[in-house]
């Protein structure tokens, strides 16, 4: 009837039909009834079925399943990339060797720094001292030695940048000199004119230039103690300190972005599943 | 513009483009609905419902035979009408189809009044024969033999498989043939089977 038989089956049927009147009659009657069905008219409809354009409902833009699936996959990949980046940057951070800021070297006892040379005097040697005054008996003092300003002193306001030198080289000598000065002070009478030398550690005799509001009146130089020496060394900061990059908390922008991306991915996944069911 | 362009425009919400498709396929859709339901008013309702539903779900059309896709929608609309009819049986006021004043029967050009009358009589007889079939057989027969859909398209429209379609179609044809041969007097002479004529 519908020409769906294979050639071999069709040949077998034709051969049978040539011999069997009953089957041939049955097939002819079937074809006749179907032909009548195709010829039979249908009463025409009384109207057209076009939709009124003005009254057409505005179609809600509903994204297709394929579009939602693609967007969900993209959001998932982006989420994985952001999370991977976050984890990578966190666990691959090397310990930071940050130099300890100079402010940490500020000693509890205020020490006054000494400008060894006036700023206006360009000297080749930044450690030129003037023997105008001494804070300690010069006789007992060691010969003037180049005074060095500890590193922390260099950052103190008022300290001339031309009068700084690393302290480590003269630390031992300064200690020895201080001991000698101390001995000298104990043994001799202090001159009334001479101001009592502060019992604070005096490492070197320092000849101050003429008093200047810029410079400290008394030449006291705090001895580089072992503590300050330790402080002067650059210490590695283990882990993180207050000056290093803060630990990523929950409220950091990256974490907020990750959370938002996660929510978006979940929403898109739900919409995709619903679109598939609707499809 | 061809059908594909109208469909694309309709999927974007262009109702005017969709109406072009309606004008092209409304005869097929209405004929199917009429053959399945047997009543003009019910067929018009089912046809209108089918086109409204088709426009709402035009984005669900993924290609293939657009005619088959439309006929699937009207088939479902016809099933809905039949379910309502079974729950609330009603007698149609248009039961008599012999009313020659009915303007719905359109005569072909050059057709004599006798031929027009015989053709209208044939249509009525066929409709009675189809009405004796089961719903599934009726739908399969109309889609395959009236609208010319393939087995696959009929299966898609009916939501079943090809084997079931072949079975329903075979039984529907046999029952139609039996009815017509049993009521030969209802068939106009020039449409009767040659062997019958003889």
The overall average pLDDT of chain B, rounded, is: 85
Low-confidence stretches of chain A: 109-144, 146-164, 192-224, 234-240
Question: What oligomeric assembly is this protein in?
Answer: heterodimer
Gross geometry of chain A:
elongated
Secondary structure tally, helices of chain A: 7
What is the CA-CA span between the terminal residues of chain A? 36 Å
Q: Using only CA atoms, what is the Rg of chain B?
A: 18 Å
Q: Beta-strand level of the residues of chain B, as a percent range?
A: under 5%
User: What is the helix tally of chain B?
Assistant: 9
Strand content of chain A: under 5%
Indicate the structural class of chain A.
mainly alpha
According to DSSP, the number of beta strands of chain B is 0
Radius of gyration of chain A: 50 Å
Element-level helix/strand string of chain B:
HHHHHHHHH
Helix content range of the residues of chain B, please?
55-70%
Helix-residue proportion of chain A: 40-55%
Largest interface pair? A-B, 34 and 53 residues
| Helix and strand sequence of chain A | HHHHHHH
Biggest sheet layout of chain B: none
Structural description of this entry:
- The complex is a heterodimer of chains A (279) and B (198).
- With 279 residues, chain A is mostly helical.
- Helices cover 41% and strands 0% of the residues of chain A.
- Chain A has helices at residues 7-19, 21-39, 65-91, 151-154, 171-187, 226-232, 253-278.
- In chain A, helix 1 (7-19) crosses helix 2.
- The longest helix of chain A is centred in the N-terminal third of the chain and has 27 residues, at 65-91.
- In chain A, 22% of the residues are buried.
- In chain B, helix 4 crosses helix 7.
- Mean pLDDT of chain B is 85; it is low at 95-103.
- Classes of the chains: A mainly alpha (279), B mainly alpha (198).
- Chain A binds chain B through residues 1-2, 4, 25, 28-30, 32-34, 36-51, 53, 56-59, 62, 64, 279, and chain B through 13, 15-16, 18-19, 22-23, 26, 29-31, 34-35, 40, 43-44, 47-48, 51-52, 55-56, 59-60, 97, 102-106, 119-120, 122-123, 125-127, 130, 141, 144-146, 151, 173-174, 176-177, 180-181, 187, 191, 193, 195.
């Amino acid at each position: 009837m519908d020409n769906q038989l294979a050639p071999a089956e069709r040949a077998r049927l034709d051969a049978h039909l040539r011999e069997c009147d009953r089957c041939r009659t049955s097939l002819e009657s079937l074809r006749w009834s179907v032909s009548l069905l195709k010829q039979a008219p249908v009463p025409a409809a009384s109207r057209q079925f076009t939709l009124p354009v003005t009254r057409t409902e505005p179609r809600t833009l509903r994204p297709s399943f394929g579009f939602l699936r693609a967007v969900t996959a993209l959001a998932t990949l982006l989420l994985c990339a952001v999370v991977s980046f976050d984890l990578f940057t966190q666990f691959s951070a090397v310990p930071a060797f940050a130099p300890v800021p100079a402010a940490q070297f500020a000693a509890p006892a205020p020490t006054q720094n000494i400008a060894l040379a006036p700023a206006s005097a360009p000297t080749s040697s930044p450690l030129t001292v003037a023997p105008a005054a001494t804070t300690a008996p010069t006789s007992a003092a060691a010969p003037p030695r180049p005074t060095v300003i500890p590193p922390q002193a260099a950052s103190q306001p008022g300290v001339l940048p031309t009068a700084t030198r690393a302290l480590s080289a003269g630390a031992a000598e300064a200690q020895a000199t201080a001991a000698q000065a101390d001995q000298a002070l104990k043994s001799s009478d202090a001159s009334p004119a001479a101001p009592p030398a502060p019992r604070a550690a005096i490492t070197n005799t320092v000849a101050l230039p003429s008093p200047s509001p810029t410079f400290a009146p008394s030449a006291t130089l705090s001895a580089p103690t072992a503590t300050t020496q330790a402080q002067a060394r650059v210490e590695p900061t283990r882990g993180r300190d207050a000056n290093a990059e803060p630990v990523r908390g929950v409220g950091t922008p990256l974490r907020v972005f990750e959370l938002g991306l996660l929510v978006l991915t979940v929403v898109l996944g739900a919409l995709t599943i619903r679109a598939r069911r609707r499809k | 513009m061809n059908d594909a362009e109208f469909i694309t425009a309709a999927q974007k919400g262009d109702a005017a483009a969709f109406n072009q498709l309606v004008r092209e396929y409304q005869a097929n859709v209405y004929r199917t609905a009429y053959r399945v339901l047997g009543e003009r008013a019910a067929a018009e309702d089912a046809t209108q419902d089918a086109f409204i539903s088709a426009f709402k779900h035009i984005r669900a059309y993924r290609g293939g035979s657009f005619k088959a896709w439309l006929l699937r929608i009207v088939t479902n609309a016809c099933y809905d009408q039949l379910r309502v009819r079974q729950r609330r049986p009603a007698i149609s006021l248009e039961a008599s189809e012999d009313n020659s004043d009915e303007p719905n029967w359109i005569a072909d050009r050059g057709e004599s009044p006798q031929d027009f009358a015989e053709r209208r009589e044939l249509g009525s007889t066929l409709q009675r024969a189809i009405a004796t079939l089961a719903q599934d057989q009726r739908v399969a027969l109309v889609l395959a033999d009236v609208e010319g859909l393939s087995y696959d398209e009929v299966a898609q429209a009916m939501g079943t498989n090809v084997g079931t379609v072949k079975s329903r179609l075979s039984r529907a044809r046999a029952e139609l043939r039996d009815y017509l041969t049993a009521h030969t007097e209802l068939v106009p002479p020039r449409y009767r089977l040659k062997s019958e004529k003889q």
